[in-house]
Design goal:
The complex is a heterotrimer of chains A (220), B (954) and C (328).
Chain A: E1 3-8, H1 17-26, E2 36-37, E3 44-45, E4 49-56, E5 63-70, E6 88-90, E7 97-99, H2 109-113, E8 120-122, E9 127-129, H3 135-138, H4 151-155, E10 161-165, H5 172-179, E11 196-198, H6 209-219
Chain B: E1 22-28, E2 37-43, E3 46-52, H1 65-68, H2 70-74, E4 84-86, E5 97-99, H3 102-119, E6 124-128, H4 134-144, E7 149-150, H5 158-165, E8 176-178, E9 185-189, H6 197-209, E10 213-217, E11 230-232, H7 239-252, H8 258-264, E12 270-273, E13 292-294, E14 300-302, H9 303-306, E15 316-318, E16 321-325, H10 326-335, H11 339-346, H12 350-366, E17 369-371, E18 375-376, E19 382-383, E20 386-388, E21 391-395, H13 397-400, H14 405-419, E22 428-430, E23 473-474, E24 477-478, H15 500-506, E25 514-518, H16 530-537, E26 551-556, E27 568-571, E28 580-582, E29 596-600, H17 613-624, E30 630-631, E31 634-635, H18 640-646, H19 678-684, E32 688-690, H20 705-713, H21 730-739, H22 751-760, H23 775-780, E33 783-788, H24 804-807, E34 813-815, H25 817-823, E35 830-835, E36 838-846, E37 854-858, H26 875-878, E38 915-920, E39 942-945
Parallel strand pairs in B: 6-7, 6-25, 9-10, 9-21, 10-11, 25-26, 26-27, 33-37, 34-36
Antiparallel strand pairs in B: 1-2, 2-3, 4-5, 4-27, 8-22, 12-16, 13-14, 15-16, 17-20, 18-19, 23-24, 28-29, 29-32, 30-31, 33-38, 34-37, 35-36, 35-38
Helix pairs in contact in B: 3-17, 4-17, 5-14, 7-10, 7-11, 7-12, 7-14, 11-12, 21-22
Chain C: H1 5-30, H2 35-59, H3 77-101, H4 107-132, H5 143-160, H6 170-203, E1 217-219, H7 241-269, H8 274-295, E2 325-327
Helix pairs in contact in C: 1-2, 1-4, 1-5, 1-8, 2-3, 3-4, 4-5, 5-6, 5-8, 6-7, 7-8
Classes of the chains: A alpha+beta (220), B alpha/beta (954), C mainly alpha (328).
The structure holds ligand MGD (2 copies), iron/sulfur cluster (5 copies) and molybdenum atom.
Amino acid sequence: MQLTIITDLNKCVGCKSCQMSCKEHNTSGAFGPVPDETPYQDPDGMWWNRIITMESGEYPNTSVLYLPKACMHCYDAPCVPVCPTGASYKRADNGVVLIDYDTCIGCQLCMWACPYGVREFDEEEGVVKKCTLCIDRLEDESLPPQERQPACVQSCPTHARTFGDLDDPNSEVSRLVQERQGFGLLPELGARPSVHYLPRRPAPSPVEREELEEALKERY
Amino acid sequence: MATESKLLTINEEIKDEATNGLRRVHTTCYMCACRCGIEVTLEGDRIRFLSGIPENPVNKGVWCAKGGAGIMTEYSPARLSQPLMREPGAPRGEGRLVPVDWETALNTVTEWLREIRKTDPRRLAYFTGRDQMQAFNGYWARQFGTPNWAAHGGFCSVNMAAGGMYSIGGSFWEFGWPDLEHARWFMMFGVAEDHPSNPLKLAISGLKERGGRFIVVNPVKSGYGALADEWVPIRPGTDGALILAFMHVLIREGLIDREYLRHWTNAPALVMRAPGTPRDGLFWRSPAGDMMVALADGRLVPYMEARGEGMLEGEYTHDGIRLEPAFQLLWQEVQQATPAWAQEVTGVPKRTIVRLAMEMGTVAQRHPIVLPIEWVDAYGTQHSVTVGRPVAFHAMRGLAAHTNGFQTIRGLFDLMMLLGTIDVPGGFLYKSPYPKPVPPPVKPAPNPDDYQPNQPAKAPLLGYPTTPDDLLVDGDEPIRIDESYSWKYPLAAHGTIQNVIYNAASQKPYAIDTLMIYMANIAWNSTWNTLTTRDLLTARDETTGEYKIPHVVVFDTFDSETVAYADVVFPDTTYLERWDATSLQDRPISEPDGPADSIRQPAVPRYADTRPTADVLIELANRLQLPGFVEHGKPRYRTYADFIQLWETEPGSGVGLLAGFRGKHGDQMLVGEPNPRQLEAYAAHKAFWQYRLPDNIRYYRMANQGYLNWAHQVKFIGQPSMIVLHLYSEPLQTFRLAGQGLWPGKKPTNPELKERLVRYFSPVPIWYAPLEDRAEERNAYPLRIITQRPMTHYHSWGSHNAWLRQLLNENPLFMNPQKARELGLRDGQWVWIESRIGRMTGRLRLSDAVEPDTVWTWNAIAKGPGSWALDSESPEVTRAILINHIIPDRMAGREGDEFFNNDPVTGQAGWYDTRVRIYPSEIHEVWPRVAPRQPVAQPRAVQHMAYRAKGGGR
Amino acid sequence: MRPAPQLLVLTVGQGIAAGLAVALAALWSMGVLTHREAVWLVLLALLTAAIGGVASFFHMHHMAAARYILRRLKSSWLSREALTTGLFGGSLAILAAWSLFGSTASWAYVWWLWVTAAAGLLAMWVTAMLYATIPAVLSWHTPVTVISLLSLGLLSGASWTGLVLPLGDHVFRVFSVALMVFMLFVLGIKALHWRHFGESHGRLRAETGTGLPFAPYRLQDTGTTKPPYRMQTQVWPAIPVPVRNLFYGLIVLFVGVGPLLCLLLARLTGVEVLSVIFPGLVSVGVVLERWLFFADATHSSRVFFVDEPRHPSRVAAAAKKRAPVSQA
Ligand SMILES: Nc1nc2c(c(=O)[nH]1)N[C@H]1C(S)=C(S)[C@@H](COP(=O)(O)OP(=O)(O)OC[C@H]3O[C@@H](n4cnc5c(=O)[nH]c(N)nc54)[C@H](O)[C@@H]3O)O[C@H]1N2
Ligand SMILES: Nc1nc2c(c(=O)[nH]1)N[C@H]1C(S)=C(S)[C@@H](COP(=O)(O)OP(=O)(O)OC[C@H]3O[C@@H](n4cnc5c(=O)[nH]c(N)nc54)[C@H](O)[C@@H]3O)O[C@H]1N2
Ligand code: SF4
Ligand code: SF4
Ligand code: SF4
Ligand code: SF4
Ligand code: SF4
Ligand SMILES: [Mo]
């Protein structure tokens, strides 16, 4: 089993709801807090999910793109073998990559090893933190069933994010990845991310070219 | 209140649905005006997390970044904790405020107000910003007796509201909505990224899921625009031309819905063509007042009698009067609007214009949606199915915030009528309680003596004039301090808050005594020509040395820039600490499938010595013995919670603020006796109420007899008769007649006022260049500057939020690289941004996602030093820019200063008309920077913050 | 990459110690050292190793968890580093005790000298492998990293013998020729390494390698809302080209040209102080080299802020104002 999140870039508006819901739900959660530095001065803080805004193409054929970036819960997670204490580990039962704060020495080697830059360092506690795929929510029986999913998936106002088991060929996430040419980031670094993105899929104009040419020629 | 006793007992105890030591309270979010249902999960008294309520009709379980960050708003260091008064002798504006007790603050303001009310109630000006209790505030002001109340619509989007109300008796946003569940083709004009936030995101997502086509017309591509299948970059202020050209092509290509026009709009109604007479341009009416139409056989009959058979073309005469169908007049206007002309104006290629028109026309006319829903129309005709046109539109301030916005929006609604997409599946759908008659039959009392000392005003303070006689003028002179409903801004349906400070300080048309401001940051981001406006707030009479605005009272929750300008500050609670209602009397949360409303309830204990503003206003009303609030000397309401449950629009009307759970036993809806346990009932139903209209009264509601009967029954409308859509606006023509001196009633004498009426009050949509576009400005200031809202911030109230401010805290000026090359400017360079009223610096960021003649930035990110409990070296202070500094408040080329930079029809502030030129700056930092003020809420030098619900203190 | 001072001290100290150990073993085996000189060299090695070790200790933020550090010897080079650095330190300590209090005349002492030298080399090699085996740090992911760290360690350690052996000394004269040759080798290696750094930097352009189908793209996040952030130590604003070139120059000067001149001058003049200046120059050069090694390394996640040299993120640097209060 490999639990993961698929983000449909055809729907993501870059609202950062997933970024905020992550922080807000996790800060008091099992793997929190998710701290901030000088929050009322020159602010900075830890986020396990960050949205990147990008542009490509030249005006007027510009494309604007938002890329939510959290832990990719890699199949061959490079952050795991480098960890000297075994604090970073990948769960055998569901593929979620986690950090055990009690054994983490804060050496930050895993931060170097992660190709995606999604691990962040909590100076105060001396441990590295990152997206847990909301494992504490997934496994909390006291939560109502609809909340036993990642906060960022639950909050996303465009339902751009889908959560599920990528190893199950019948799951929604597998279907999406297959049917919509889902791709992972930085494939050449060999981490085999389980998190996938779905590309844009533009809807074409319903007006035939000839029909338009004719109208233009004859009337306008 | 002073005495905490309540007339009614409301169970203020929070429901304990204990799971894992967590409690959950349902309420309505107010991190923005979207009003999503949220669940607040608490651990003890502290917020564990916030999330969306899945059943809520607005957000259906999702929540946005702002909503989630509510935790940091609740625990913000910028919160006001107690009433404040200006330090004796200290000048206004420096923030030198001292804490006082509630009794002192209340007494002081009561005395001011009592005096005003006794002498001249007009001398109270009460203006509210992002206010969600306008029904209450409007009622309060009316009972006080002043005409000078309004909410924020004037600087916001009154063009959108009025444009819709004068066309279809509804509009976009809280009044109506694109049906993206059925639409296959969706065009969005001038909507940034977040309006309305979650509902539109959900809807667009659904459209994309179904493979619908999404077109965005906007000078900027971002947010929603990023998802567009086609981006149509347009020069700001020119959409009217584009829309006229669309209509031109549609009509010529025969892609319009003629049946729709003939049945449901006034397109076939006969207009009298009698230039120079008082009848010119008005409908020819039967003695009973019915519009007349021509039938194919040449007979002229009343509209309803024609049963949709009225002719759209032709010339007719009756009694020597030339008559033409309204549609033909529209065509005459639109005929000139060729795609080639529109290309010149808008910058959108002709071929794109023609193609898009053909796209919308083809999808609408050739691929209708047919739903198996039977319905009966107002003519008595039974329809076996419901036919819809799957072409939908949405628009907001990109159209509204221009001085030609009203006519542009009228154009958009006419376009939708031509396509037959009003209240049909796949098109535009009304939200309850709309549709209302066009325009809605509410009018303010128009005469000076309707506002008498110690009397309530004779009518609601805002409404929709239908003829010049409804204007609030005394000759040429305005009655209202903001000049709403004057000859300058006749259809100012939401008031014109942006005019208030200027007029009050220049004591024109008269001096006021007290300015009360609730939830508006008018000394900073909702003002224009900001530095001057700030000076006006502190302007003094040269002879007496007294302030020209003697008293300023501010209701705010946070230490905003405006707080510094207050003489008395009433500290409000946050939205998580009070009772509140989103009401059908105001701007409800209704969805197209039926009415809905919701409440807020206290989820966390009130902070320090704060009180909900509504409670304070009720206390003031009680002390002032305002009628309606006090009966036989006894207060009817102690708190807003009482008011929400007990108040009725008229005594015994059965209609109050909340529509659900009415009646003694809470088993009635919409109309019913007040229910003293109504709030409890809402609380138990996840804080909202919703009624789903049966399918057969869900569409064509302006003409769906079943619906009209029901709407009449529940008092949404006065008569169960058909609401004819206004393709042609007769009310506008009456103003034009007044301008021509032909109107028999009120008319202006000043030639300039007359000319404006003639020029801008066209009964069919027109396009004219924004008023900033005289040749002088066009040449000197070749670029247009506009702002967008960021998805993560709600105006000025996000920057003190520790989490939100990390998402955005500085705003570059975005410019197209082609333009930058042309001007020799580089990415990252500091530049001067100069408008005709002044200049400021900004930092350039090149972006291919903006049209070359436009530059843009986010609004309301910049903060004044000393406010919001932020360090004065914060990026918001040192690196963010506020373009309001250079947005002109007065109209261009007006030496005499007679007019504001407003739409001449509605008084909508023309934010996005500002023209600038841009050149390298020798100053490499933000300029101008205002002097630091003394903070009330002290900046907290927090080094490391690790929020945990458990065990933390405040 | 944000350079951590502890790692800088650790790698430099470890390199000197290991280099000293190797030089010591070689010179002692050649029989050209006095006992007194050997003791000094051992103590110097122990000192530098200790400084490095202590620094590495402070690089750990969660001391209590240090006891788990050997858990992942099978996969983690850091685990192995802890082990081999420990072994090296241990053997050095024994060597020191032996040199001070034991009999140094036995073959066993020579044998232990070489064991210690081997432990030093092993420790250096493991440390170097730790850096070289991280694919995400493109600049380090090359065998040249291993050679570079090893050779610089040896060079710096060997140069430190100058503190004990006067440059004018006959022994040292012979040794110095070998050093000069090695120095040129080191410069060559560094040139190769820097070329790889440059390539890594260039490889990370938006056009390539993100896996996104929309490239080339440009990032549009603004100033403080764009990476890198303070909490992401794996990334750091790119070093401006002039600064990088300055460092190149300084390193060549300190590790190469300067010491070479020292050695030549020493041969010609026999001035005593040069023997102190010489290791000083090399050490400063190695520190500079190590700083650049960290600071100029390209991490793959930089691809998500490729245009960043134009507008460096401010938040990556420590907050300007350090205020005292902490709030939870
Ligand atoms: N997150 C967030 N949400 C908000 C608010 C907020 O502050 N933050 N504010 C709320 C309020 S008060 C309001 S009024 C609404 C406003 O909601 P919007 O109307 O979406 O808000 P604006 O940011 O004014 O966006 C105007 C858009 O029109 C474009 N535009 C400007 N001029 C033209 C033009 O001439 N033609 C066209 N086609 N486009 C043009 C701009 O590029 C921009 O995209 O948002 C509400 N929602
Ligand atoms: N350049 C530029 N300027 C613009 C616009 C633009 O597009 N461009 N848009 C305009 C538009 S559409 C609008 S609507 C205005 C909005 O402008 P404003 O109405 O001024 O809105 P805010 O800046 O949000 O200020 C609201 C005030 O309410 C306070 N507040 C927040 N919550 C509460 C509460 O619970 N109780 C009380 N009592 N106070 C509270 C905040 O502290 C703040 O001081 O800005 C206008 N200004
Ligand atoms: S919440 Fe959804 S739409 Fe918003 S940024 Fe995240 S993935 Fe994109
Ligand atoms: S920082 Fe913690 S989790 Fe990361 S490698 Fe070091 S010990 Fe492992
Ligand atoms: S994304 Fe980074 S932290 Fe997450 S599993 Fe992959 S390598 Fe590890
Ligand atoms: S899965 Fe949970 S922890 Fe991971 S990004 Fe989403 S909300 Fe954050
Ligand atoms: S859209 Fe507005 S009301 Fe809805 S959750 Fe976000 S901030 Fe709250
Ligand atoms: Mo607004």
